[in-house]
Amino acid sequence: MNETKLPTPALLLQRLFQIGEGLKNVDGVIGIIGLGSIGSDKNRLDKYSDLDFFVIVSPDAQEQMIESTNWLSSVGELDFVFKNSDHGCKALYHDGIYVEYAIFTIEQYRNWKIPGGRVLWAKGCDELFAITDAGQLMQKSLKAESFYINEALSNVYVGLLRLRRGEKLNATRFIQSFAIDNILELLDKRYSGKTRQDFFVLDRRIESRISDVEDLFKVFVTGYTSNVLAAKAIIDWLNQNYPCNQSMVARINALISAYKNDHPEYELNPESWTRNRES
């Protein structure tokens, strides 16, 4: 699909309105909760956004609402529908509007208390507003900074061991994915004054939230054939910025040196990552 055909925010909101109006006439539907850029963070809505929402229903209407997508297709032609959970689907309209939704009872929604929600409409159910407001007050259960430091060190260490065994893909996941998740938590703590764009996914719009962060990830995420380079960049950055266990740092550096000794052609200069090919 040509990018010029991406739906405008106005079209997204219009489709959301159409879905909502249609659901008002469906028996058992209590209300709709908008999430993400159509939830409490609606200022984020742009042409790259999708429509994330919950439909709250009575228990006797839930199964039918989950199994049938007629209410969804009644407002536009669907090119793609995929039931991705026990409660909902992902779908793509022919005009490029992408939706993700789940169908919950009021009791299930009460137990979730997901932050970032906004009641789009409700049929005489004040509790829906109260539950959603309670969700806004939720705080992520953050662990101590030392937890994320030590997790990142462990990720890099295990990743290098896997690489030595020849498990390059698994090494890539440990070093350039799992360790990065913990580094994101550290960055989130350091820049806690910045608006968090997604309660559950820390890397959402991080480039616009933290200046110069791209310079870090250029050397932290270097690809399948440059795990040693990524590991070196990560361990050096952690050691320079946080109190790291020096025994673990030494073991990681020893693994990096051992790899370098076995592969003298391998360069640890960040500018060389496109030339490195790990064997």
Give a structural overview.
There is one protein chain. This protein has helices at 9-23, 59-67, 70-73, 106-112, 126-136, 145-165, 168-190, 206-209, 213-220, 227-241, 246-262; strands spanning 29-35, 51-57, 78-83, 88-93, 98-105, 118-122. The protein is α+β, with helices and mostly antiparallel strands and 279 residues long. Strands 3-4-5-2-1-6 form a 6-stranded mixed sheet, with helices on both faces. The protein starts with 8 loop residues before the first helix and ends in a 17-residue tail after the last helix.
Summarize the structure.
The chain is an alpha+beta fold and 279 residues long.
Q: What keyword list fits this structure?
A:
11 helices; 279 residues; alpha+beta
Task: Itemize the secondary structure elements and their pairings.
Blueprint: H1 9-23, E1 29-35, E2 51-57, H2 59-67, H3 70-73, E3 78-83, E4 88-93, E5 98-105, H4 106-112, E6 118-122, H5 126-136, H6 145-165, H7 168-190, H8 206-209, H9 213-220, H10 227-241, H11 246-262
Parallel strand pairs: 2-5
Antiparallel strand pairs: 1-2, 1-6, 3-4, 4-5
Helix-strand sequence: HEEHHEEEHEHHHHHHH
Detail the poorly predicted runs. Answer: none
Mean pLDDT: 84
What level of helicity do the residues show? Answer: 40-55%
Biggest pleated sheet = 6 strands, mixed
Please count the beta strands (DSSP E, at least 2 residues each): 6
Q: Report the total helices.
A: 11
Tell me the distance between the termini. 38 Å
By oligomeric state, this entry counts as single chain
Biggest sheet, spatial arrangement of strands:
3-4-5-2-1-6
How much of the sequence is in beta strands?
Answer: 5-15%
Shape: elongated
> Using only CA atoms, what is the Rg?
23 Å
Quickly give the structural class: alpha+beta
